[in-house]
Description:
Low-confidence stretches of chain B: none
Strand content of chain B: 15-25%
Distance between the termini of chain A: 95 Å
Largest sheet of chain B: 6 strands, mixed
Shape of chain B: globular
Low-confidence stretches of chain A: 1-21
Strand content of chain A: 5-15%
Strand order of the largest sheet of chain A: 1-2-3-4-5
Helix content of chain B: 25-40%
Radius of gyration of chain A: 35 Å
Radius of gyration of chain B: 18 Å
Helix content of chain A: 55-70%
Oligomer: heterodimer
Order of helices and strands of chain B: EEEHEEHHHEHEHEEHH
Structural class of chain B: alpha/beta
Order of helices and strands of chain A: EEEHEHEHHHHHHHHHH
Strand order of the largest sheet of chain B: 5-6-7-3-8-9
Mean pLDDT of chain A: 88
Number of strands of chain A: 5
Mean pLDDT of chain B: 87
Amino acid sequence: MASAELAVPRAALIPGQGSSARRLIPLRGELRMRDADALWPELSAAVEEIHDGTVTFDLTGVSVMDGGILSLLLHLRAVLAERGARLDLFGANERIAALIELYGGNDRVARLVPKRAEGLVEQVGRATVSVLDEARLVVEFLGQMVVAAVNVARRPRTGNWHDTLPFVEKTGVDALPIVLLINTLVGFVMAFQAAKQLAAYGANIYVADLVGLSVTRELAPLMTAIIVCGRSGAAIAAELGTMKVSEEIDALRIMGFGTVNYLVLPRALALLLVVPVLTLLADIVGIAGGMLVASISLGVSRQAYWNETLIAVHPHDVATGLIKSAAFAMTIALIACQQGFATSGGAEGVGRRATSTVVASLFCIVLIDTLFTVLFRALDV
Amino acid sequence: MIEVLDLTVGWGDTRLLENASFRVARGDVFAILGGSGCGKSTTLRFLTGLEQPLSGSIHIDGVGAPRLVEGRPPFGVMFQHGALFGSMTVVENVALPLREWTRLPPDVVHAMARAKLRLVGLEGAADKLPSELSGGMKKRAAIARAMALEPELLFLDEPSAGLDPVMSAGLDELILTLKRVVGLTVVVVTHELQSIFAIVDQCILLDKETRSIIARGRPSELRESGDPRIHSFFNRTAEAV
């Protein structure tokens, strides 16, 4: 029997010889978890060539062994069982025997069953079913919102009105600086990009038409919705999601509150009030941004720019933008609240739902924008 | 194992415990006891280095004063509500310290984590997320994670609360076996009298009013105390501390 000293302090292992003989591998010393990194390669190397028969780890010389090392030995036993070999533990002192019992070391060795990897078709199928399920849940939630809203409309006293105003402040007033800044820059950049081309044709004054129509019909509603979605949509989903995982929503239900009425409608109403107002203000500052560029780099006076804007932009242009913005607001509220209510799984679940809210809302906003644009064109609005 | 001298616990102007001194012997199960709000769990935060003492000192053998530094943790801690990572399965939670602080191959780490889960009776829940577990299961998973690196010192914050009597007794048995077999030292914050009498070697009883330790010793001896505050705590009568 060959002998080999381990690199591990206070421990030694002597592998047996012969491929099918009964092999005895004595261990000795104190075997603790801190030595696991060094011990594992030695242990696995000692049994590497063994594919049949029985290997016995002789623990007679082991004074102390902790659970970490024992679990290494038990894992080795499972690995050997897979290969058709058997590993026995022999000579354990009373304390180690108790530990072996505690870790189930005397139980029958369970075979390691590797999990079958999921195929591509299965993955695509599961993802499709998951998306359809989510869509169904959103539609169901929309139904609940409509029912709750109708009930509140019939009996206004049942509405949670006192929570609406704080949400108006949080989602509207607090968002005002960033909405105004970004939309000013959008008008500014648009005019700046167009300035050179328009100047080449001597059509400087038409920058007012370009900026006015683009901003009121398209860019102000879209940019405002994107900001509100990233800012308030994610916040609503995270807030409701946290309430869901901490069972606050269940507590409300137990206390007899209609959760859609109490939690969702104030947020939805706040967004419905706030987003069109923000969009209207965004229209104004977007046009102002264009005016600034026109007066500086195109030599168009502010009065001329304003007059041209009034000629180009009609009330219905502004109205189409506001209609879109109201639809965007409802979309954000619906998705954010639904995602919040569907949260599970603690902090990670809350983060995942907040992310889903932003992604799904942005997708729906662009989709709705496209539909409205086509519809308005068909109606010649 | 742990030497605490003149420790003052609290924050800002609030003091929960003042000038407390006690020793935890190696291999003992040591309990910090007291009524609600007396600072038991807070004291545990100071012992584990999550907070720094307002005054006094804490010395842990092989560690010195507990300070949070990056590196292999010198002891295991089970938090009151488990503090499992929600984004990981139960077995991944237990494997995390092994993966980070050993160089063992992934399949070995996984097997060791499963062995720990088996130890606390959770092998069947290994692939579940913490959100799918009951409160008691979360605690047991947290104990498995705290023990993953086989620390010589384990801090347990209310380990038995929320467990059914059978599971609680099983946990007590586990602690006693680990103490006997690997010489584990355990500092436990608990209210469970049955557990206290079953596993605790030495304890201290904190008092909210005097912000001090009002009793120390073996629970079975303290049960016979003539002090009504101590007697009521250990005999579960209305005049609780």
